[in-house]
Design a protein that fits this description.
- The structure holds three protein chains of three kinds.
- Chain A is mainly α.
- Chain A contains twelve helices and no strands.
- The longest helix of chain A is centred in the middle third of the chain and has 39 residues, at 178-216.
- By secondary structure, chain B is an all-alpha fold.
- Helix content of chain B is 72%, strand content 0%.
- In chain B, helix 5 (98-134) packs antiparallel against helix 6, helix 5 packs parallel to helix 8 (170-179) and helix 5 packs across helix 11 (212-223).
- The longest helix of chain B is centred in the middle third of the chain and has 37 residues, at 98-134.
- Chain C has helices spanning 9-23, 57-66, 119-129, 167-173, 180-183, 243-251, 264-273, 309-317, 321-329, 359-368, 398-412, 425-434, 454-458, 472-483, 487-504, 549-552, and strands at 36-42, 71-73, 85-87, 90-97, 100-105, 145-152, 155-160, 206-212, 216-221, 232-239, 257-258, 276-281, 285-291, 294-295, 298-302, 333-334, 381-382, 385-386, 388-394, 417-423, 439-445, 507-513, 515-520.
- In chain C, the strands form seven sheets. Chain C has a six-stranded mixed sheet with strand order 16-22-13-21-19-20. A four-stranded mixed sheet of chain C has the order 1-10-9-8. In chain C, strands 4-5-7-6 form a four-stranded antiparallel sheet.
- In chain C, helix 11 (398-412) links the parallel strand 19 (388-394) and strand 20.
- In chain C, helix 6 (243-251) packs parallel to helix 7 (264-273) and helix 14 (472-483) runs antiparallel to helix 15.
- The relative contact order of chain C is 0.15.
- Classes of the chains: A mainly alpha, B mainly alpha, C alpha+beta.
- Chains A and C meet through helix 7 and helix 9 of A and helix 1, strand 10, helix 6 and helix 12 of C.
Chain lengths: 323, 311, 555
């Protein structure tokens, strides 16, 4: 187990390092001058020289690469062009919001998806199964930002059940009780998490249904049925355990999906997370921010897939023994 | 919409139904049962019909949508006009015909999706085949590259590229989408090739003196076609959604060229006053992706009977 | 038999109780005259709150409440002479000779962190605004002032270089007095990113509380403000990503005020919301398309297309501005005869005419200058170069984006190709400053007098003359306008100057919006000053019987 773990961690570090090198190459090979002065005033020769010196773009390329790596190790990701603040601070503020959104969406995704998948497998080929197949297909195919806009329109603007954006109420939040604060946050979180969760649940349900049906076709299930075990017990106690494993591997794939969806959904709901940070930065051509978020997201995905592998290994003895 | 274009639209629908019914008939009578397995899926026929219809509409766009998509018909009188006989899907903020923009937008969205997928599948297929066939250090290096590619969510890769390279035309956009989308395909193809290279027919080809690339191209890849085709169908859907998202953010297809994504962005502020401007493009995207997923499901079953999901 | 787990009744009851408790907010809280909480829906985020390095309207909206001027413009006041001004930091002033102005500071004025406001602060402020290291956009407006010195702690002396009608205006309007004891130790070259810009210390009716970038900014009333305690207890800005989101918030009751509605759809939404009152006021903004007369990114060479005045005039003639205005604003805007807002109503005279929409004349002009479509692709060309250019538009302005697409289509009809570049406001600013653009849609929010913006925008060497327009005639006319002694000769000189601009067409003047603000009906005493809409916020009040949940919170 341990050598496998070490190998996976080493691979993860190598991947992050590769992405770091690629972003550095991208910045310096791109047309135009990297790290133009953040100051929008008429070009002040002295100021440009000073900034060149600070960012080190007047040094030879290999030295710049080393200084770049050193800066990253220190946690410095440069300064945003448009907001004049350190990128690391901006990411630090945005990250918890995205984590919250992604975690909640993941919860909705898997809870709903697994439940629907199991339900469908139990009633395979019946009308409810067919209807749900089409419904899950529909939700799985929806563009996340479009679903977000529709939900915002219906539940935010028309019905006023949920607020139209933001993360907390800017006025009363501080004076609410703990329960009140929680409720306020939940109300703001509901629509964006639901948007991501519903689309993801569509995919998870389809996958779970397939995995469970395949497990139900296995010999050990036939044996259990022949022995007279009740159908529901067969489903839950025997087949589901087998079918949950591939779904857990879906967790590894879910993270990139959620982060991709976050960029669009956070924009629609003005949710101040990493996705909105990247989307705003792209229109400002603020590439220190875009590159910083890309690096962080890459690191997050590497860590996430490592965790998913660990969970799968813990749950599936076959992997543990062979590693 | 003139009477002629209404008639042509009806003709296209009729043509699509005929084609689907005909292919169903062919499948039923054919010797191999792949076609029958395909049509056994309830949504396969519908999915195929949707795709053929939209592809035909996209190709014959000038015939079914006589008004050009960028024409601002009457900016003071016909803005945000609800659907009518002349303008079946209404007009948008700039008094442009939404139906025209939808049909011409199909060209852009489907075109970018398909071409991007072709780039991705070709690249992924070649890399996967090479990695699986040659093994050794080439396999190691290529698969590590694939790991890197799969680690960063695509949209961030694309955004990072756009941030650094400023303006992106349609061609570079397709290339970018293709270059960021081949990783999963290569894994798939590699897995297939790994099993296939041990088969007798490969050995036979090699012993007859065929060079490695010939073996890959003539013997291995055709047998690995099944997962490749399925992944291609799904790939178009993903490309479409990604392009729509990018256009929605304002960094994909630039106006006035219509794309389903930038149509939704244009109509975003008008959801209450003119919902048709963003409702129809959104529904179109959902419909096409649904159809592609349904067809991919049916294809998976048809091309590879080992993949049964229902007993 | 499998047993279904039953959801414990106790847990359900607990959950319901928690939810019930959470939905009840405390009764009571603040009551009385000084309780109002105003939430303003901002249309973009604040950049910096340090006045000398800021040029964004939203920044000004906020530091209007925190930092004071020596004297402020009364609503409707003239900028010529000193009759149109009311005391702020200075409670009286006098001219000891034609070139010397002496201000006496109000001894009650204090900084929020304790010390009194002194004349040393005034002298420090002048030094900062004119410092090249700080590089303030207002630096050139203070060129007529030779020096500012502190005679004693409450007396500041301004020495001018020459006499002209707006001496008092220049002395008081452009500078907000800064605390020397806080900023004195900060090196001027770092003021762009200084901490003060994120947490200012002021002397105004409101104190800075906190700023969450991209989300909210909060100010609290200074109950000891020497000119009178503000009736509003808290001011909160909510930053929306664009105007439509801001109006959605106001219509939904999540914000109380927004300064402009602009489009007919938004006006209707505000009217339909039911709890909003609409306040029209004279518009202080105007929007135009600026041509870059020098090559894109290379100011040493002329632009291949726009250096030619006939081409520019042709493009002006090819745009159907009244129809675009009708399409976008449905009548709630006007086409200015020059780069001027409705605020300068005294300059909207019949002599300055708006060129008509005439595509035939436009085509003739373009063909006459050698731009013909030789290869049949629908775009004119000359010597192998297409008549095609980029138009930069900020992504935060839906109206300008709309205009961009309308312009693109209209110019296509005369064989001109326009490529639209959408970008964030800051990026557009950067490109303008560095000359890396062909054309740009710019929106300016002006001062009450043309003297602060027009020479800078169109005069030779002006700090905002991004298109490098240069006309000796125009410069002469500006010089006359800024130095003439009587109001009539000032007006005549300005009209002559704008006439020259109309002739030379360094830009296409598009619209000046009728400003309508929407404020929650419970707010009383709403007064809006056209040049700086939230300047009089501290005089607004919410009557005790109209206080709502938000007003009472945190009492």
């Amino acid at each position: 187990m341990l050598p496998w773990l070490l190998r996976r961690v080493a691979a993860g570090i190598a991947i992050v390092f590769a992405v770091v090198t690629l972003t550095f190459a991208a910045v310096h090979l791109a047309p135009g001058e990297p790290f133009q002065p953040a100051d929008g005033r008429p070009v002040n020769r002295a100021a440009t020289e000073r900034l060149r010196h600070v960012f080190g773009t007047d040094r030879p390329l290999p030295e710049q690469y080393v200084r770049y790596l050193a800066a990253l190790a220190r946690g410095e990701l440069g300064e945003s062009f448009s907001k004049r603040r350190p990128v690391a601070a901006m990411i630090g503020n945005a990250l918890p919001n995205t984590v919250l959104l992604a975690a909640t969406a993941l919860l909705i995704d898997f809870a709903l998806g697994i439940a629907i998948g199991v339900f469908q497998a139990a009633r395979v080929r019946r009308r409810s199964d067919v209807a749900l197949t089409n419904i899950t297909l529909f939700f799985y195919s929806l563009p996340t930002f479009w679903l977000g806009l529709v939900l915002l329109l219906v539940f935010g603007q028309w019905l006023h059940w949920f607020p139209v954006g933001g993360i907390t109420d800017p006025v009363v939040y501080d004076s609410l009780s703990f329960a009140g604060k929680l409720l306020d946050r939940l109300r703001h979180l509901a629509l964006p998490a639901l948007t991501l969760g519903l689309v993801g649940a569509g995919g998870t349900a389809r996958f779970q249904r397939g995995a469970l049906l395949e497990a139900l076709g296995q010999d050990y299930v036939r044996t259990a049925r022949a022995k007279g075990v009740a159908e529901s017990r067969v489903l839950v106690r025997h087949a589901l355990r087998d079918a949950l494993l591939p779904v857990i591997s879906l967790l590894g794939l879910a993270l990139p999906f959620l982060l991709t969806g976050a960029v669009l959904v956070e924009t629609v709901f003005s949710w101040p997370g990493l996705g909105k940070l990247a989307a705003d930065a792209i229109s400002a051509r603020d590439y220190p921010v875009v590159l910083g978020t890309t690096l962080l997201v890459c690191a997050a995905v590497v860590v996430g897939s490592l965790l998913a592998d660990l969970v799968t290994a813990a749950a599936d003895p076959r992997i543990r023994l062979s590693a | 919409m003139t009477i002629a274009s209404w008639l042509l639209l009806l003709a296209t629908v009729a043509w699509t139904t005929t084609v689907v019914a005909w292919s169903r008939g062919v499948a039923r009578r054919a010797r191999r049962d792949a076609g029958r397995r395909f049509f056994r899926h309830p949504t396969a026929a519908a999915g195929l019909a949707v795709l053929i219809l939209l592809a035909t509409l996209a190709l014959c766009a000038p015939l079914v949508a006589p008004i050009l998509p960028s024409t601002q018909i009457n900016i003071t009188e016909l803005q945000n006009h609800p659907p009518s006989w002349q303008h079946p899907f209404g007009t948008d903020l700039y008094s442009r015909d939404v139906w025209s923009r939808l049909v011409y937008g199909a060209r852009v969205s489907l075109g970018v999706g398909t071409l991007g997928m072709l780039v991705a599948v070709s690249l992924g297929g070649m890399v996967g085949a090479a990695a699986g066939y040659f093994r050794g250090w080439a396999d190691g290096v290529l698969m590590r590259l694939v790991d890197v590619g799969l680690s960063v969510p695509r949209i961030f890769l694309v955004l990072a590229a756009i941030a650094v390279w400023d303006r992106l035309g349609v061609g570079p956009l397709i290339l970018l989408l293709g270059l960021t989308g081949w990783f999963a395909t290569s894994r798939l193809v590699r897995a297939e090739v790994l099993t296939l290279r041990e088969r007798p027919f490969t050995d036979a080809a090699r012993s007859l003196g065929a060079g490695p690339w010939r073996v890959i191209a003539r013997h291995v890849l055709p047998n690995a076609a099944a997962p490749l085709v399925v992944s291609a169908a799904l790939g178009i859907g993903n490309m479409l959604l990604l392009e729509a998202g990018l256009s929605f953010l304002g960094v994909g297809i630039q106006p006035p060229a219509p794309s389903w994504g930038n149509m939704i962005a244009d109509g975003r502020d008008l959801l209450t006053s003119a919902p048709w401007t963003s409702l129809f493009p959104g529904a179109a995207i959902a419909l096409v992706v649904m159809a592609l997923n349904a067809v991919a499901d049916a294809l998976r079953d048809a091309l590879d009977p080992r993949h049964g999901t229902g007993r | 038999m499998t047993t279904q787990p039953r959801f414990p009744h106790a847990a359900t009851a607990l959950l319901l109780a928690v939810l019930a408790a959470a939905s009840c907010t405390r009764r009571g809280g603040c009551t009385g005259e000084y309780c109002g909480t105003l939430v303003i829906a901002g249309t973009s985020d604040v950049t910096t709150l340090l006045p000398p390095v800021s040029d964004a309207a939203i920044d000004r909206d906020v530091f209007d409440q925190i930092l004071l001027r020596l004297a402020d413009l009364a609503p409707g006041g003239s900028t010529i002479g000193d009759a149109g001004f009311v005391p702020q930091l200075a409670n009286r002033w006098e001219w000891t000779d034609p070139l010397t102005l002496v201000f006496h500071l109000d001894p009650r004025a204090r900084w929020h962190d304790g010390p009194s406001v002194t004349a040393a602060d005034v002298a420090f402020t002048f030094a900062a605004y004119t410092d090249t290291a700080v590089n303030s956009p207002d630096r050139n407006t203070l060129g007529h002032i030779a020096s500012v010195s502190a005679l004693d702690s409450l007396t500041a002396v301004f020495h001018f270089r020459d006499r002209y009608p707006e001496m008092f205006y220049d002395a008081v309007f452009h500078m907000r007095i800064l605390p020397a004891h806080v900023l004195g130790s900060v090196p001027p070259a770092t003021w762009q990113t200084a901490e003060f810009g994120r947490a200012p210390v002021g002397d105004g009716p409101f104190r800075f509380v906190r700023w969450t970038p991209g989300q909210t900014l909060e100010l609290a009333a200074d109950s000891t403000f020497f000119l009178g305690r503000p009736h509003l207890r808290r001011l909160i800005w909510r930053f929306a990503s664009d105007l439509n989101t801001a109006i959605t918030q106001v219509a939904a009751g999540e914000a109380d005020a927004v300064e402009v509605l602009i489009t007919p759809t938004n006006i209707k939404r505000a009217q339909d919301a039911g709890h909003l009152t609409l306040y029209p006021y004279s518009g202080s903004t105007y929007t135009f398309l600026r041509f870059n007369l020098r090559a894109n990114g290379d100011s040493a060479h002329p632009h291949t297309i726009f250096a030619d005045p006939d081409v520019r005039r042709a493009l002006v003639l090819a745009t159907d501005r009244p129809r675009m205005l009708q399409s976008v604003f449905a009548g709630h805007a006007k086409i200015p005869p020059g780069p001027m807002p409705q605020l300068w109503a005294w300059l909207w005279v019949p002599q300055l005419t708006v060129p008509p929409f005439d595509t035939a004349q436009a085509s003739r002009l373009l063909s006459g200058r050698g731009w013909r479509d030789t290869n049949g692709d629908g775009v004119r060309d000359r010597n192998g170069k297409k008549l095609s250019f980029h138009l930069s538009v900020p992504s935060t302005s839906a109206v300008r984006q709309q205009y961009a697409q309308l312009l693109q289509e209209q110019l296509k009809a005369v064989g001109v190709e326009v490529l639209i570049d959408q970008m964030e406001t800051a990026t557009q600013q950067e490109r303008l400053h560095s000359g890396a653009f062909d054309t740009a849609l710019e929106s300016w929010n002006t001062d009450p007098s043309p003297t602060s913006s027009v020479p800078g925008n169109w005069g030779r060497g002006g700090g905002s003359n991004f298109g490098h327009y240069a006309s000796a005639t125009f410069d002469r006319q500006i010089a006359v306008a800024t130095s003439a002694t009587s109001p009539d000769s000032v007006t005549a000189a300005w009209i002559a100057a704008f006439g020259t601009l109309a002739q030379d067409a360094p830009g296409i003047m598009l619209f000046s919006v009728d400003m309508i603000a929407a404020v929650d009906s419970r707010v009383a005493g709403v007064r809006i000053r056209p040049d700086s809409w939230w300047a009089l916020l501290w005089t607004w009040r919410i009557p005790p019987d109209k206080l709502n949940e938000r007003d009472r919170v945190g009492g």
